[in-house]
């Protein structure tokens, strides 16, 4: 009985979401194939997928979750955050701290207690904010809590005094910029310029093992699906309707008696947690995190993922994240000079000609065909 | 007959030349003897006879440092460059040839004692003090300032009679006062101590402290003490002034960077993320100009200002016509599109020039510093940029408030439809406004090229700051931008010594983020109808 009910909820959530079903199904097939062929097929086989591709796919999945988080705030409640990279990076740093503690005495300096960079900085004992990060459960808790707290404090201050639109975008950008400057400092205790890297294992599984990487890939996929379902659930609920109303006419909603700032705060915090989780998934797969992730450029680039895919559709964000990042990977290795032109061009073209992104383009083409069919 | 005269000449050469002009090499041969008195005579002799010889200072300096050696067999003078255990690496002092390393037994050191060293120092100072080049004289005087005694005082008085440069004269006089304060008669001492108070230099402070701790005379001691406290108070006052000056300079840079944005963002409500790149274009225009005419560095900055304005304005107009025109009223989309443009512009600069920083030369008249007194000196480039930023501000204000173009710009931004109905070509005005905003950014770039590295990332470093200034000052209010720029500049410079540059920046950003919470529309919010978004 209970089982059928739970299924019902998922079916309810996904009921009118054809695009979401298609995108998630395709992703599920790709992930399943990659996992199977990497582990089961021999290396010589033409169908074998390299571990590099597995890691790449895992990275894209983490980015997709981040894009999803941004689409939730930008597409559904109208907050264009140019600082979502900060939440992502904080989640990532929190998880990287766990991975650093796992290295133990296998570092270059062989100090069981302190990570290499602290030994290098002549620290005698662990800074207080590193306590507890040797515990994976505590770490997972912090992965969500740290971005959530930042989002809560920042959002509470900003939404309460009705900082909206462009102003909000600029101060979110200033926020992540401030974080970047701070994290570049060596004496912050997060490895400064070099960030945190040289991870060895996660929960006892070596990060070099293919099976660990496949495991991370599957977890990333599950996290993405969960994030998607939660977002979709929120959007479909009554609360979601209010959010969309706020996006389209904030003053009117306020005049109707809704506490706009509370809705905004809720969505902002949920989105920040999703971004933090995405960061935590990103770190073990990429193997490094440094203050560059805090840079305004990264945060604004992620806006373009969502814009290209199609803002306010959720699955569009996933499509956008995959397309732009694949293009980025391709160009930076094949034609590094061209990539920034292409990325810059994407910004211009997508805002001028694709206001609803690829998803909007698809439905436009479909509409045209239907009109043709009807007239024919 | 001819043969005979040639013979005489040859004979003459043979016999007399050595008498009239011994070479320096020959004259220092007596250094091989061990008597210090002989050496002292040699030093005095060579300074007298070989003051034109460029090797002379080298010989004296090497001797002073105790690196002058000679070989035991050939009596060749060499400089010891490196000791490796018992092996000595040497170079010939006259030819500069690097000699084969040999054991230390092959060499003998030219030994010196305290008296000889002080004579050499004095002679070196004297040589430099009467050198033909002003720079050599200046550095020599500055060196002598550290070591004041009776001998130096004689030199100072001698130099004062012939010196023409006012900068050197003032240092010489300072030395003279310092000398009198230390070694003069009672009356001279008292006068000099009072005079030292006015000098504010670190040297005079040190002299006063020495006097205060060593003298037994109560009157002098008291006077010295009051002089010391007076110097210290005025010193801390001047260092405060200096920080304020740095703040002003930082503020003027912010003002220049933000002024263009105050027009495009403040007046037109266009979020131009490519604003920083407009500054970059201005800086690169300066660089290109200097490359084209390397012989006119002195004027390059003056020419670069209007040129950079035109180039950046043109790029701005093109961007406005091609992209921004389609996005009015959609600020977030403008933000994204212009960010894309900024990436493209950066990459163009990387492709055309190079990803590395370029060196923009500073003209002569902008380098150096205005030394007001011993404790306070203001660099000319910062001083000029402060003045320049204010001039640009006034110009922008005049254009917007007093010209017909400015009137039309304000009309269009206040009510587009109505302005159109009155016959104003709004499209043209939009392009012009954006052009002016971009052009000012270009001019800011010229100023920045004198302060920071010119590279593809020049603009990015300023974009967040400039937005902060405009938002802090209140969007659409030029006076607000002015006040905000200087306030932020001052705050930054005053917390920098305590917190460090990076943390100061972080603190300012947090401050602004909190400030926006309190006053979401900035220091001077717009009132009335166009206040609503």
Written description of the protein model:
The complex is a heterodimer of chains A (376) and B (533). Chain A has 376 residues and is mainly alpha-helical. Chain A has one domain (2-375). In chain A, 73% of the residues lie in helices and 2% in strands. Chain A contains 15 helices and 4 strands. In chain A, the strands form 2 sheets. Chain A has a two-stranded antiparallel ribbon. In chain A, strand 2 and strand 3 form a beta hairpin. In chain A, helix 3 (51-77) packs antiparallel against helix 11 (260-286), helix 6 runs antiparallel to helix 11 (260-286) and helix 12 (296-309) crosses helix 13. The longest helix of chain A is centred in the N-terminal third of the chain and has 27 residues, at 51-77. Chain A is globular. The N and C termini of chain A lie far apart (49 Å). The relative contact order of chain A is 0.16. The mean pLDDT of chain A is 88. Chain B is an alpha+beta fold and 533 residues long. Chain B has 3 domains: 21-115, no CATH class; 130-216; 240-531, ABC transporter involved in vitamin B12 uptake, BtuC (Orthogonal Bundle), CATH 1.10.3470. Chain B is 69% helix and 6% strand. Chain B has 21 helices and 7 strands. Chain B has helices at residues 2-20, 24-27, 36-49, 55-65, 114-129, 134-144, 150-162, 166-183, 186-199, 202-214, 218-267, 275-292, 297-322, 331-352, 380-402, 404-414, 416-421, 426-449, 458-473, 478-499, 501-518; strands spanning 68-71, 77-84, 87-92, 102-103, 107-109, 369-373, 376-379. In chain B, strands 4-3-2-1-5 form a 5-stranded antiparallel sheet. A two-stranded antiparallel ribbon of chain B has the order 6-7. In chain B, a hairpin with a 5-residue loop joins strand 1 and strand 2 (77-84). The model of chain B has no long low-confidence stretch (mean pLDDT 81). Chain A binds chain B through residues 80, 154, 157-158, 160-167, 169-171, 173-175, 177-178, 181-182, 184-185, 296-297, 300, 303-304, 307, 337, 340-341, 343-348, 350-352, 355, and chain B through 271, 273, 323, 326-327, 331-337, 339-344, 346-347, 350-351, 460, 464, 467-468, 471, 502-503, 505-506, 509-510, 512-514, 516-518, 520, 533.
